[in-house]
Each structure stands twice: as structure tokens, then as C-alpha cells.
Amino acid sequence: MKFATRAIHAGQEPDPATGAIMTPVYQTSTYVQESPGKHKGYAYARGKNPTRSALEKNLASLENMKYGLCFSSGMGAADAVIKLLKPGDEVITGNDLYGGTYRMFTKIFAPLGIRFHFIDLGKTGNIENYVTPSTRIIWIETPTNPMMNVVDIEACSAIAKKHGLLLAVDNTFASPCLQNPSQWGADIVMHSVTKYLGGHSDVVMGALCINNDKLYEQLSFIHNSCGATPGPMDSFLVLRGIKTLHVRMERHCYNGKIIAEFLAAHPKVDKVYWPGFPTHPNHAVAKKQMTDFGGMISFSLKGNSMEEAFRLASATKVFSLAESLGGVESLIGHPASMTHASIPKEEREKSGVTDSLLRLSVGIEDIDDLLEDLKQALDRI
Ligand SMILES: *Cc1c(COP(=O)(O)O)cnc(C)c1O
């Protein structure tokens, strides 16, 4: 079946007890057993919950993968992947990761003896220089946050396969609607479900999708043992959110393109980062692996003034100043002081997160109102 149909139906059957078309919220922590160990596959809700199981099957279907696992946050999902490793193991990853992922890698796992190489993944030819006998995982994010760099998943996968490494892809920015990393050889696909999948800025959740049986078993074991599992109400809200994913993404992409072009032509704007521009350094790769370019856009101001960026971010009325992304409402953020505040100034400037850089999560409001809002805010700085 096609994506739109799977978004609405995959993993979901009418409730066997009542015929309810919506998967019920199984708000329970435990399940009655007939005799010790004899049950219907559900023993304790950290391990398994039917509302969550429906969502896990739905996500696996949307990613064209065999298994899904839902976590209580995107970071919980990423944490489980790195827990596959032992002290001395190494990870090759990008130098413009989501700030929270960078923080977890450097502040939590590096002190436990895992080595991370943060490199420029725009040129995948670089990667092999960092492969050692201890390398275990290539971890990529594409498009990246907030610089909208695009990493060639297929090229990374070829290197991973050649050296027997796992390729993990954070697919949060594209969502499974615009990109399926497994099609290009990813072993693990990670999501901050909080963003486009949930889509309504009302849930924090993460997910992993996996094809390999043994890898799924290992990750399930970590999932249940460490316990970063989401509750049934959040699972229900995400199942509901995903039913409109394909329709929302269409509008995010439509609005995103118009706004990217508007910004690129504005006299006060310096650079605009959006993979849909033919001048984007990895436009060809984006065209190959994505079906459209999404609603995430970053831009900097001429003169690179942090004060002007602050004024602009406070002057918008339809775009709300907030962390996060991927919801129906438009958001504006200032990465250097918000999402990327935990990255040292020299580090973030190397990757383009300058003082005036602003990031837009273009929502699905009327495009005329969004354009008008940006116009008046740019006039006021
Ligand atoms: C938000 C985000 C995360 C972290 O997810 P949470 O749900 O906030 O824990 C990871 N990667 C990317 C790209 C994100 O945008």
C-alpha cells in the first residue's frame, strides 16, 4: 500500500472487544495472567503496551522497516543506540549535530570511554580516514540542524558495509514522508517523534526503526532494561497525529519553498540555508534521497548582528519564538542562544551557527500571513 494509506491504517485494527475504530488508550501498568507466565503477550507495561505496539508497527511500516521501538523522547532513542557499545568503541558522526545529541555524546558517553569523531560529513570521502578497528557506528543526521546540510546516506552505507559498521540515521527533519533512510542502506533509523511525526507540539517522544532481527533484540533488551518507554496516552496522540502526516508535509513543503525564496531575495538577509535551492552544495543528494525539501529553513542577516537577530525573533507575531519544530504552527528560533547554546562559540561558528543565524520551522498556516509576518518583522530591525 502507498504511504498515505499506511499513515492512516498501518498497525491499527478495530478494537477486538468493541470494534472501536481508534486504537484504545490502554492505560494500564500490568496485565492479568492466566497462570504464571501464561498471558496474551503482555506482562508489564514497561515492556509492552498495546497502544504503543500499534504505533511501533505504524512507524516501522512508514519507514519500510521490520520493527519499531518507541521511547519517551528522541534522546531516549539515541541513548539506547549508543548503549549497544562498550568502552573503547568508536563512533564517527557529523560536526553539526542536534545540540542535545552532541551534549549526550560528549558529556555522558565520552566520559564512559566511548570515542566520538565529529567530522564534516558533507564530503563522505572523509569518513574512511577515521575508521579504526574500534569503530562500530556511523551516526548521521540529514538534513542537519540547523544548517540544513545534506548527507549522502547511500555513500555512508557503502562505507559502513565495507567495514562492518552500523549506520544510524536521525531522520527527524525529513520525516518518513520525505525520506526513508533504509532505502539507502541505513541499519537504524531514529526519530524525535516530538517533531513532524507528532506534528502538533503536544508530545515528547522518540523512536527507532530496525530491520535486523538480532539488532532489534539487542535494542529491545536495552529499551526494556533501561526503561525510557512512553505512556499509552502519548502513543495515542502520535497515532492520531500521523494520520495527517502526508497532508501536513505537503503544506510544510509548499510554504517552505515560498518562504525560502522570499528570504533569498530580501535585502537584509545574507545567506539562506534550504536544500531545495539548486545552489545548495548537496542539492543533488537531497534530490536523490528526499521526495521534497521540507519546511525547515535557516538564514543569517547582513552584518551578522546578534541584537538584530534577537529583535527579529521577538518581532514576529505568527511565528512564535520557541524551541522545537515540526508542528502545525510556525516557529522561529535563534540556535546560538537556544538549541545550540551548549556548543562552544568557536565550535558552532565553524559549522555556520553564527550570531545572527535564525531558524524557521514553517508551519501550515496561510502562506500570505506567514510572508506578511516576516516582512513586517524584517522591516522593524
Ligand atoms: C529534537 C531533536 C532530537 C531530540 O529529540 P527529543 O524528542 O527532544 O528528545 C534529536 N534530533 C533532532 C534532529 C531533533 O530535532
Plain-language structure description:
It is a single chain. The chain is globular and about 75 Å long. Helices cover 36% and strands 15% of the residues. It has two domains: 3-242, Type I PLP-dependent aspartate aminotransferase-like (Major domain) (Aspartate Aminotransferase, domain 2); 245-378, Alpha-Beta Complex (Aspartate Aminotransferase, domain 1). Helix 3 (74-82) crosses helix 4 (99-109). The strands form two sheets. Strands 1-7-6-5-4-2-3 form a seven-stranded mixed β-sheet, sandwiched between helices. It has a five-stranded mixed β-sheet with strand order 8-9-12-11-10, covered by helices on one side. The protein is built from 13 helices and twelve strands. The chain has helices at residues 3-9, 50-62, 74-82, 99-109, 153-163, 175-178, 213-226, 232-242, 245-264, 283-289, 306-315, 345-350, 367-379, and strands at residues 67-71, 90-94, 115-119, 135-141, 166-170, 188-192, 206-210, 269-273, 296-301, 320-321, 331-333, 358-361. The structure holds pyridoxal-5'-phosphate. The site of pyridoxal-5'-phosphate (PLP) has 16 residues, from helix 3 and helix 4.
